[in-house]
Amino acid sequence: MDFLKDLWAFLKVRKKFWLAPVILILLLIGVLIVIGGGSAIAPFIYTLF
Hints:
Elements (H helix, E strand, L loop, with lengths): L1 H12 L5 H19 L4 H5 L3
């Protein structure tokens, strides 16, 4: 949780709120890759791309 607090402080101090959606989308893609790697729903995830 310390990393997230530091990241939020960085975004707030430097007024870089436009980075928040970019980081969120990268995290979501990463979660999809991890879930799609070895699960039963992998074929359904691959059809999205």
